[in-house]
UniProtKB/TrEMBL annotation:
<keyword id="KW-0677">Repeat</keyword>
<comment type="similarity">
    <text>Belongs to the PRP39 family.</text>
</comment>
<dbReference type="GO" id="GO:0000395">
    <property type="term" value="P:mRNA 5'-splice site recognition"/>
</dbReference>
<dbReference type="InterPro" id="IPR003107">
    <property type="entry name" value="HAT"/>
</dbReference>
<keyword id="KW-0507">mRNA processing</keyword>
<dbReference type="InterPro" id="IPR011990">
    <property type="entry name" value="TPR-like_helical_dom_sf"/>
</dbReference>
<dbReference type="GO" id="GO:0005685">
    <property type="term" value="C:U1 snRNP"/>
</dbReference>
<dbReference type="GO" id="GO:0030627">
    <property type="term" value="F:pre-mRNA 5'-splice site binding"/>
</dbReference>
<dbReference type="GO" id="GO:0071004">
    <property type="term" value="C:U2-type prespliceosome"/>
</dbReference>
<dbReference type="InterPro" id="IPR059164">
    <property type="entry name" value="HAT_PRP39_C"/>
</dbReference>
<dbReference type="GO" id="GO:0000243">
    <property type="term" value="C:commitment complex"/>
</dbReference>
<dbReference type="Pfam" id="PF23240">
    <property type="entry name" value="HAT_PRP39_N"/>
</dbReference>
<keyword id="KW-0539">Nucleus</keyword>
<keyword id="KW-0508">mRNA splicing</keyword>
<protein>
    <submittedName>
        <fullName>Uncharacterized protein</fullName>
    </submittedName>
</protein>
<dbReference type="Pfam" id="PF23241">
    <property type="entry name" value="HAT_PRP39_C"/>
</dbReference>
Amino acid sequence: MMASAVSNGSGKAAVKSPYEKYDEIVKKNPLDFNSWVQLLTLVDTEPSMTRDTVVSTYNRFLNEFPLCFGYWNKYAQYEYSLGEKNAEEIPLIDSAEAIENAKKVYERGIVAVRYSVDMWVKYVDFLIQTLNVSAEEARAVLDRAVEAVGCDPLAGSLWEKYLQLETQNNDMVRLNQIFKRIMHQPLNNLEDFWEKYNHFFLAQQLHTLATSEELNEIAGQEEIDEGLLRVKLVNVVENIKNQTTEVIQKRQAFEAGIDRTYFHVTSVSNNALRNWHAYLDYEEIAGDAQRCEHLYERCLIACANYDIMWVRYAQWKERVYGYEEAKKVFKRATSVYLKYRSAIYMEYALFLEANNKLDSARKQYHKVTNSIAPTLAEAFIQLCNLERRQGNIEAVKAQFETGIQVMKDNLGNNAHEAYAFLTIWYVDFVIHELEDLEAARALLAKATSEVTKSLVLWLHCIHFEQSVGKKHGTKGAKATMIERVNSIYNAALRDSCELNVYEKNDLWYQYIEFLKNHGSSAQQVRQDLEKEVTWKRKNGMPRNRFVKILRLEGGADEDYSSTCEVGHKRLRTDAAQSAAGNSTAPTSTASVQSVNGATPVAASYAQFYQQYQGFGAPSSYNQATSAAYGSYGSYYPQQ
């Protein structure tokens, strides 16, 4: 089974065993859940697997996915099975040792999934049904279980096991106490327990149903018979049950919207996410901190992969319990559930900075930039913002330059847009904080000489020069601006520039429009129009030009959009081209239509900034790490 994959004696690499194949996959990508499942199936079904291999595989898997209660149960059952007799009537290990090992696994499981009813049920079943432990030991675990999840609407099965334990031990006083505790819990099947309690109540003596102090309190100074006293006793419990029923009814719609109470790597539906947020809003307004905390913990079983839920939980903890409790939430998220997710580290860093823990905040950013996502521009920018807020100007410059160099070193991994993004932010810092336009211009010139394939970077250079020219407003300044913008366009449109033909096609349009609107020579416009046509012919691009729509009238040609606003630019095409979808709706008053599927430059510019609205790497990187860790994709919004 564990055959070598190095050599088979003939100089050729040996065929890897199925275990080795999947083990290699999960080592490269520990978030590949499906490969983990295949690996665990192998260790469960292959008799030749050693105990060390099985234990190691389970431990590694549960280190990555600790909320999978079913695998905690399988792991514990495996440990227990080692103490059972095999075909030769010889157990692999002593049965007492096997039992102890299984209990340890279950205990680890309930620490990892404390708020899972299913995890507690598995543990209790193992103790009572498999081991037949003493009532005291079973009761101790059941007490811990109902303390943790007794108020869960699905905890009815756990309470039922508690009732069964005390019934088998004929402890009616304890049974009565458990029934009374149940009436406080918003269980889905509360009415079933109420019916059972009524049967129990009728069969018991008064001294079982209440202490002498309780009976005296109910009776007061009056002399009342046993029948009336029983009625008053049951009315007290019924009032509690009725109050709990009101709680259930108020939350019934929210509970119905929960489509999954267990963890899985597949995404939670949008409707379910909205329901969780609405439910949490309701509980926060209701103001019961204990109930609200339990709901958050329930939510974070199904939504453990959503950093937005962890951040929300930490914010609520900070408001209600303070800094230390909120910090514990962030630590759980970053050390266990979202340890490959850059966004949660940056949220944690912002939280630490807000609480004046600056060195700790820096450490969180460095975790991202050093290992989790070294080419994530957003992490460098947030770290620079921290230093800027502290007035550490030199530190800001150093971090920007470090980040830009990292992006430059990783251009082979498609980091050019991250390079552009970081450069643009550095330029913005130099303009607004240092007020040094020449330094900003030098940064842009250097960037476009080093990285020529980023359309966004070229557009920003053009925008920068036009903005500077407009601010100065003099005739000489405008001429300088036109000269500089011309130079940028010429550099971007040269053959050696790495922009693709569609991007250059859009830039040609922008360039001609710039000359028409700002240039002083009609002859130059005509000459450059000829250059554009020559370029299009050489690169196989359509020669279509754009026209301005001055007004909209009914009965317009099919190739014009009736929804287009006055002032938009629209490509004149024939009906066949429009039907084929070769042009798209304008995105803004400054947008241009794409040709043969080209992306408009304005749209590209907007899309670039939209890409970095939230935390996360560029689309060419997964949200966890630019190295090898797998991406959850849709499981994690805005990553």
